[in-house]
C-alpha cells in the first residue's frame, strides 16, 4: 500500500480497554499504545520496539529515562524560559520538541525524520500545537543537517534509530564535523546512544565526540555502566564548561536514578577507543530480544 492509505490508522483494542492505533510506516509496523495511567498519553512503538512516549495534555512530562535526561539538558543549556534554536535528528513522536516548546516558548525548532510515513502517522494521531514553531523535514538526518545554517543551533539532539540501531553514518567524526558547523559557539550536542556488553560502541562514541569537542559528560543507568545490561546512555558534548554538578543531581533524583561521568573518569571508561570515521563506521549493536519484553 502506498501514499496516503499507507498511513491510515487501524484501531485495535489496547491494554486496559483503551484503543491502540496501528499503521504501516517506512520503518515497519507503527503502534500507538495508550498509557493506562495518563488519559492523553501514548507510547510509540515500531515493530514492537518502544521509540518514545508523549503526553498531549502535559508535554512537560517525560516518561522514558533517556528522554528525562535529555530534558534535563534542555533545561540546563540556557537560563529558564529563554527561547532556543534546536535541531532534532530523529522525530519519533516529537516528544522532545513538544517539551522544548512547552518549557521554552518562542523556541524555533527543526525535526529531521527520514520516515515520511511515520511523520504523517504522528501528525494525524498526535498533532503538534499549531502555535509551536516546529518545522519537520522528512529527509535523512545528515541531509537535513546539511541544510541548517552555520552557527544556527543552540542544541543538536541526535535520537536516530533504524529499527533499534543507530545508522552507521551518524556515528562518525565527519558527522560530528557537520554538527559542529551547525552549532553556535556556546551550543551543545546531545545524543541518545544504545549499547550492551562489552560496551564497544559506547566507548567508541565517547572517543569520537572527544576528538571534536572539549567537554563531555555521559549519563546512564548503573547497570549499563557496569556492562551488565543493554540500555541507553545520554551523551552531551560542548566547547564550554558543562553544568556537570547540576546534571548529576537531576539524573540521580530521577525515578530511575542514573550516574553521570565526565572528565578523566569518562576518558578512562573509553579505555583508549579510537574515533570512528565514515569509512569504518558501523551501526550500533542490535539489542537482545529481552530488552523489549
General description of the model:
27% of the residues lie in helices and 28% in strands. It contains 9 helices and 13 strands. α3 links the parallel β7 and β8 (133-137). It has 293 residues and is α/β, with parallel strands linked by helices. α1 runs antiparallel to α8 (244-252) and α6 crosses α9. It is globular, with a radius of gyration of 18 Å.
How does the SSE layout of this entry go?
Blueprint: E1 10-13, E2 19-25, E3 28-34, E4 41-46, E5 49-55, H1 65-76, E6 85-89, H2 95-103, E7 108-112, H3 116-125, E8 133-137, H4 141-146, E9 153-158, H5 173-182, E10 183-195, H6 200-210, E11 215-220, H7 222-225, E12 231-238, H8 244-252, E13 259-262, H9 263-270
Parallel strand pairs: 6-7, 6-9, 7-8, 9-10
Antiparallel strand pairs: 1-2, 2-3, 3-4, 4-5, 10-12, 11-12, 11-13
Helix pairs in contact: 1-2, 1-8, 6-9
Offer a concise description of the structure.
By secondary structure, the protein is of the alpha/beta class. Helix content is 27%, strand content 28%.
The amount of helix comes to 25-40%
* Integer average pLDDT: 92
| Number of DSSP strand runs | 13
- Characterize the main sheet: 8 strands, mixed
Provide a count of the helices.
9
User: Rough shape?
Assistant: globular
Tell me the structural class.
alpha/beta
Extract low-pLDDT stretches. Answer: 1-16
Succession of helices and strands: EEEEEHEHEHEHEHEHEHEHEH
Q: How far from one another are the termini?
A: 30 Å
Order of the strands making up the biggest sheet = 8-7-6-9-10-12-11-13
Radius of gyration based on Cα positions:
18 Å
Tell me what portion of residues adopts beta-strand conformation: 25-35%
Amino acid at each position: 500500500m502506498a501514499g496516503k492509505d499507507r498511513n491510515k490508522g487501524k484501531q485495535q483494542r489496547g491494554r486496559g480497554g483503551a484503543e491502540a492505533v496501528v499503521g504501516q510506516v517506512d520503518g515497519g509496523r507503527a503502534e500507538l499504545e495508550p498509557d493506562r495511567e495518563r488519559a492523553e498519553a501514548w507510547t510509540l512503538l515500531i515493530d514492537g520496539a518502544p521509540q518514545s512516549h508523549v503526553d498531549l495534555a502535559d508535554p512537560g512530562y517525560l516518561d522514558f529515562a533517556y528522554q528525562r535526561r535529555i530534558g534535563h539538558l534542555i533545561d540546563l543549556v540556557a537560563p529558564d524560559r529563554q527561547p532556543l534554536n534546536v535541531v532534532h535528528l530523529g522525530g519519533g513522536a516529537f516528544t522532545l520538541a513538544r517539551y522544548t516548546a512547552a518549557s521554552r516558548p518562542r523556541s524555533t525548532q527543526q525535526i529531521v525524520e527520514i520516515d515520511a510515513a511515520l511523520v504523517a502517522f504522528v501528525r494525524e494521531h498526535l498533532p503538534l500545537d499549531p502555535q509551536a514553531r516546529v518545522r519537520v523535514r522528512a529527509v535523512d538526518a545528515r541531509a537535513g543537517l546539511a541544510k541548517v545554517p552555520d552557527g544556527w543551533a543552540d542544541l543538536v539532539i541526535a535520537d536516530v534509530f533504524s529499527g533499534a540501531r543507530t545508522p552507521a553514518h551518524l556515528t562518525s567524526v565527519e558527522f560530528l564535523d557537520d554538527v559542529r558547523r551547525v552549532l553556535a559557539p556556546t551550543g551543545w550536542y546531545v545524543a541518545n546512544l544504545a549499547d550492551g556488553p562489552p560496551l564497544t560502541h559506547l566507548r567508541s562514541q565517547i572517543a569520537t565526540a572527544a576528538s571534536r569537542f572539549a567537554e563531555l559528560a555521559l549519563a546512564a543507568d548503573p547497570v549499563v555502566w557496569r556492562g551488565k545490561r543493554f540500555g541507553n546512555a545520554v551523551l552531551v558534548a560542548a566547547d564550554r564548561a558543562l553544568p556537570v554538578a547540576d546534571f548529576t543531581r537531576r539524573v540521580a533524583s530521577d525515578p530511575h536514578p542514573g550516574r553521570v561521568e565526565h572528565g578523566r573518569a569518562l576518558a578512562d571508561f573509553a579505555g583508549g577507543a579510537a574515533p570512528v570515521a565514515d569509512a569504518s563506521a558501523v551501526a550500533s549493536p542490535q539489542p537482545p530480544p529481552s530488552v523489549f519484553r
